Amino acid sequence: MEYLSALAKGITPYVAGEQPQDKRYIKINTNENPYPPSPKALEAIQGALDDRLRLYPDPHCTSLSQAIADAEGLKPEQVYIGNGSDEVLAVCFQAFFNPGSTVLFPDITYSFYPVYGALYDISFEKVPLDSNFCIENNDYKKPNGGIIFPNPNAPTGVYKSLAEIEELCQYNRGKAVVIVDEAYIAFGGESAVPLLRIYPNLLIVRTLSKSHALAGLRVGYALGSEELMNGLERIKNSFNSYVCDRAAMAGATAAINDGKYYEDINKRVINTRERVVNQLTQWGFRVLPSKANFLFASCPGKDANALYLGLKEQGVLVRYFKLPRIDQFLRISIGTDEEMNIFLEKLKYLISNAEE
Length: 356
Prior knowledge:
Helices cover 37% and strands 13% of the residues. The protein is of the alpha/beta class.
């Protein structure tokens, strides 16, 4: 550790969901889409793997920006492309949040937010969710240097209405940016994109990892006013102008243009989610209302960590967070119907054995 900077020594990094290699698991712990990418996306990726790889990719991501703009009814100048939404979020922290003011986000939310705050020396306040794990608007109506939260929230899956988001944008208008992280919006929620026409301080972040089954491609993007996009570009061009490679751009563009395919597979995820909710509820679980491709559930009288370890032993991976307020919950990604049937079978076995 003697050669590390003080920052590197002191930072507490983000911890991703486990990816064990010791055996084959039913992997419902990292919110990946259980269905394959669009065949058109795969064909486009393969088509991009030619002698043009000797050339740098388009730093403006022109074709992809245009495809996203067309899909959302925006101008290409209102689209920013990044190497996954995590990188986009990191750039947002640098572009819009100042060290001298306090950024607000929920106490239970995406755990990269406090990491970025510490990394970029930005003060932040974790605002407690209410007793139903909802974001309470009144708690955010105070001086702040910006607001950021996922919608639906992660890891809870709880969704915030468009009217509530507009209320926060109005409160912060002319003061600071409101960032809505829509990583899971394709699974039942209503996007805040219509509000972009009204609020220049609203920025939306998206990823193709979940909704478009392209987690391995690493493509994310932001939507907002041209002024906000300019801020992101200024940061990007200060450390890496080429954030998206040629193959990723080609695949992502084809995926965006194949909306019907993704509507169909995401509807399958939603239908499976609701079936699993009904079953867990019948077994006495508390399941938070989810508009994401995962569930957040607890079983009264059963230790969540014990269930997590028991499922892992039986070849099923879910996510467990040893954190205040949520250490008795499991986050369960929605897999295929077959995968979820096996999960339910193993879970039922564990619950039954615990009762005997």
